[in-house]
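Researcher: For the record, we're logging two predictions in this thread. I'll number them. Prediction 1 follows.
Model: Prediction 1, sequence and structure:
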Amino acid sequence: MIEIIPAILEKDFNEIKNKLTFLHERVKSVHIDIQDGIFTEKSTWPFGSGGFDDIDFRKIINEEEGLPFWQEFNFEFDLMVSAGGNLSYQNAAYIAEIEQVDTVSMGKSIISRGMLIGLENAVRDAIDLVN
């Protein structure tokens, strides 16, 4: 059976709590993306509301409090990092070697190179580079 896992991307912990309350007993799993606003365009909790100094974040880290419904949801957490805008034929292979990286996006470089050597050759070169 296919499971649809809702993603939560909120700047404020109260909004995360509201979403979890809504999803409680509707889904088994919840995905929370964490974006710091440095390696991504936008920031989400806790970075959207004080970073490591966020009061709710501190309570969770210090095990004074847990996320709502902690024992009832299967939580997935992702630290989002965006490097796609500046990936090129020169640096994409280094990024692709990082075990935790599952996607390398270098479309602008492929299109640019494709204008010089043909799109098919540019795509073939890019695939060879990251494999």
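Researcher: Logged. Prediction 2.
Model: Prediction 2, sequence and structure:
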Amino acid sequence: MSKTKAVKTPKQAARELADIINETKEMKLYKKAMEELQADKKAQELIRQFQETRETVITLQRSGIDAGESMDKLNSLQGEIGKVTAIQDLTKHQANIQKMTQDLAIEISQKINFEFSVPQSGGGGCC
């Protein structure tokens, strides 16, 4: 007696793959890092200040006003943010997730002999 595989639609298979990815060590570490970042009051305050300062710089630049002082503050805040352990951890785990999904996209592309995704600068892409 032969067993036949249940035929799945691509959407069903994609949902299963998403469930599998969601259970990986990499995703669990990413989620934990995100929770730790959200609980880090210092990091949250630095992020808030950075976002406000970035908006100020953009507004000043669009208005044709010298944004030098605000840009210096933005650069300083960016340096401070880069030193926060919770942010470093999140960035590291996010890069691991991106690498994993890029590897999966390459594997799928090779299997179907069709470019599944186009890598985009700065991360992103289909996955």
